[in-house]
């Protein structure tokens, strides 16, 4: 006997073959880290809303009162950049990233889980490579050649340290991505080689 599922057009066997299928949220294979990453995503969504409100405020101040700010443009760029960087990690835990499915959709069961593990390992190495490259950027953005700490700034009239903060955030997200892909690869392989896997 099969349990009811949300999609009446999809047979129950298809739902059982892909246990990571869900309406929203992180897939099961991402574990506790994936659920945390998914929950934190709302903060960056609020950042997008905040950037829209800041721009609206800037339009009113500039054209209504002839008194523009020096911080609105850089703040909105920073908030949107943070959201876009986090968006990559967010898509990973929700399994909503773009992929070519020509071969992927031809396999099922154990073969699909093994393919998921292989894809996770390939993504792991790619994320690790980019994290290594980002580490070099962070070192240049945070430390002067003499070794003293000095955060890179934008060079504008306001001159916030947003460039350094964004590079640190990018490096952190890439490191989290590496850990997340390890967790996913292990969980996919566990699922593939369970006694009842086919």
From TrEMBL:
It is found in: Cell inner membrane. Residues 1-21 are annotated as: Disordered. Its main location: membrane. One of its GO terms (cellular component) is plasma membrane. Keywords: Cell inner membrane, Cell membrane, Membrane, Transmembrane, Transmembrane helix, Transport. The chain crosses the membrane at residues 32-56, 76-93, 114-135, 168-189. It holds the Pfam family DctQ. One of its GO terms (molecular function) is transmembrane transporter activity. InterPro entries: DctQ (IPR055348), TRAP_DctQ (IPR007387). It is a multi-pass membrane protein. It comes from the Bacteria. Residues 53-189 form the Tripartite ATP-independent periplasmic transporters DctQ component domain. Part of the tripartite ATP-independent periplasmic (TRAP) transport system. PANTHER family: 2,3-DIKETO-L-GULONATE TRAP TRANSPORTER SMALL PERMEASE PROTEIN YIAM, SLL1102 PROTEIN. The complex comprises the extracytoplasmic solute receptor protein and the two transmembrane proteins. Belongs to the TRAP transporter small permease family. This is TRAP transporter small permease protein. It comes from Thioclava dalianensis.
